[in-house]
Write a structure and sequence with these properties.
2 copies of one chain form a homodimer. Chain A is of the alpha+beta class. Chain A is built from 11 helices and 17 strands.
Chain lengths: 404, 404
């Protein structure tokens, strides 16, 4: 026993030992009840860290700065602002990202190159450095402000997204925690996904990089809200070793950690997909029986990214033709005559063709808050999942009605 | 002169010498004013032909049949039905595609393997062969039923799409004509794009294949209505040599033909993009100054495919951040600090950052029926264009309200 992964009640990024956080409202975004727009995560000791970033060719200088400091890999803190993406502002962007780290370096008394920065919000507008200079030094760090930090990174998200889980390695309790903001379109310019993960595990840097990348491929890379990738997308993990476990140096020894990391990342990814603008329900696509894991991942991603599937789900329409088409569009290996399709466990396609089902049962199944679309390709042993939002009139109104 | 490309008034697929057509209403789709649902294009002599087809892994057996007969390359006719896609119906699909060709073979008194077939409409439903058997023999061919054929391939399209142009090679008048149906979502299952091109030019088979593929890359492959690729997409060209020009045997000798073919294909592609469901206006994206033509094509395709750009255009919002993001998401070679963006010729971004412009002028520009978004990357000499529809509430309503 003692070896299962436990969910921590009210868990947040301060749950792992040695992490504290703080947040403040500086006025970068418009005011509102209990709003915050600058947040800091701080580790009391040096961390081993890893990150994955947007693949967009246009990148926020905040991302450029953070990639640079990650090379030294002795991160102690991350400073995040919401309301301004610090992107497409010319050379001033990098100067501002660096100055943000400098301000935090002084106020936290740690080295400049141990500080990552991240930004989310409007693009094409310079970071209001006067506010950054005034408010960052006022941020108070404590082990109780994880939830405050979670609020400080939100933009159009309807709710905070945070989680912590723990498990045991040879008597040491390890905690992994995460916080994220959604990829829902940001008023007025773009979608950004940010996620920060903290853990007190002691782990080798290369093993950490490998586990993060593998977890991100199963979680954040498997969601679709509106299909666009932002200039600021960042997933960052900091591990400070405060759990005092025997340092993990081989990928073979971190099954349990990987499982916990998956739980954190998949939870956050699903929360993001659920919180897309104009969105009320979650689509979960599962592809089974694929020749490779990559095939399964690609096919599920196509299903949740298809506007036709998204609108069909919104219309409670068990439109298996659209699901077949999305799977086919992914151009993976398949044998059409072996395909089975299920909507919330009710089979609607067998041997690649429609099978008789009770229409009303399926429509009722499609009224659930989570709509599970399962495709069995029956050509192999691999499975993957992906999550997406519906496409609603509200999405269109939200994203067209605002004029910059 | 006589060497420019002339548009033919009321031109249609019967404009090139030696082509006739016919159409009929068989009841495969629901009846309505002047509806037709089976059509035939017929060449009085053997054709050299070429085709490009859907890349979807799930393919209609009608496509499979047509690919097969194209290998022999002595096409005389194509039989098209709308209302039923003949897809995802198991092995019956291929039998029905073949029988369709057999029926036409008898009624037209030509070889079975000189007949291509194409289908569009609902998937998962078998072709109503009783109707095919009864009505195909009743179709009367003439040189005046090009417009009837154009109607017979429509599904949710609001209007027919047809064009013919002519030019001169060494005293021979060459005509190139085309007809298409849109990729707008087909009630209730999927989007299919069909295009048929006829010409009386005398041309070598391999040169024809190369020109078709190059034209399709600049036209049909550069449009986005809802981003999904259908199981039935087909572009087919038939050339019968009746213009009696000296046979073109080298790609270097067919500049004029390629230009005419581009004119036909780009016209039809734009008509399809304009006719997307819930769509009233056309987005035309141009990327200039790219390092390669492929880069330019990719970037324009990303712009017109982005839900965020589509909704911004619908909202008359000159949201250059979304355009920058779409260009960046294509992961092409670029230098952010050199990017310029124009909306209908009004510059809104210079050196990668917002430039002052009269907001009201841009909003007025965005009220035009065609919204031209132009990006100059300033890193090379290559240009490409792509076309897309807006994303409107009506699209969502249309695609969600119908329950299969």
């Amino acid at each position: 026993m003692g070896n299962e992964i436990k969910n921590i009640k009210n868990g947040n990024i301060c749950s792992p030992k040695g992490f504290i956080a703080g947040s403040i409202f500086a006025g970068i975004k418009s005011p509102g009840q209990d709003k915050r727009d600058i947040g800091i995560i701080f580790s009391e000791t040096d961390c081993v860290s890893a990150g994955t970033f947007t693949q967009n060719s246009v990148v926020s200088p905040s991302v450029t700065w953070t990639k640079k400091v990650l090379q030294d890999n002795r991160l102690r803190a991350v400073v995040v602002n919401s309301g301004c993406a610090n992107c497409a502002v010319g050379e001033q962007g990098f100067l501002d990202a660096k100055e943000t780290a400098e301000i935090a370096s002084k106020s936290l008394s740690i080295d400049l190159d141990s500080i990552a920065v991240a930004s989310t919000g409007i693009i094409g507008v310079e970071l209001p450095m006067a506010l950054m200079r005034k408010f960052i030094p006022q941020i108070e760090l404590s082990d109780s402000d994880g939830p405050g930090f979670a609020r400080s990174i939100l933009t159009t998200d309807k709710r905070t997204k945070e989680i912590a889980v723990s498990f045991d390695i040879d008597g040491s309790e390890i905690t992994v925690a995460g916080v994220a903001k959604g990829s829902g379109m940001i008023h007025p310019n773009m979608a950004t996904m940010l996620a920060f993960i903290t853990s007190d595990i002691s782990i080798d840097e290369n093993v950490l990089k490998e586990t993060l990348s593998s977890s991100v491929n199963r979680s954040f890379n498997q969601i679709s809200v509106d299909g666009d990738q932002s200039t600021n997308d960042t997933v960052l993990i900091m591990t400070n070793g405060n759990a005092n476990n025997k340092k993990i140096t081989k990928i073979e020894d971190c099954d349990k950690f990987l499982e916990a990391l998956d739980e954190v990342c998949i939870f956050l990814a699903k929360e993001i997909a659920k919180d897309g603008e104009g969105n009320t329900r979650l689509i979960e696509a599962t592809v089974q029986g694929a020749k490779t894991e990559d095939d399964a991942r690609k096919a599920t991603k196509y299903i949740v990214s298809s506007n036709l599937v998204k609108t069909a789900v919104y219309g409670r329409d068990p439109n298996w033709g659209r699901i077949m088409m999305a799977v086919g569009a992914s151009q993976i290996d398949l044998d059409e005559s072996k395909i089975e399709i299920f909507v919330n466990d009710i089979q609607i396609v067998a041997d690649g063709i429609a099978t008789p089902y009770n229409h009303q049962s399926v429509v009722i199944a499609m009224n659930q808050p989570i709509i599970r679309l399962t495709v069995n390709l029956n050509v192999g042993e691999n499975t993957a999942k992906a999550w997406g939002s519906e496409l609603t009139e509200e999405y269109v109104v939200f994203n067209s009605a605002y004029t910059t």
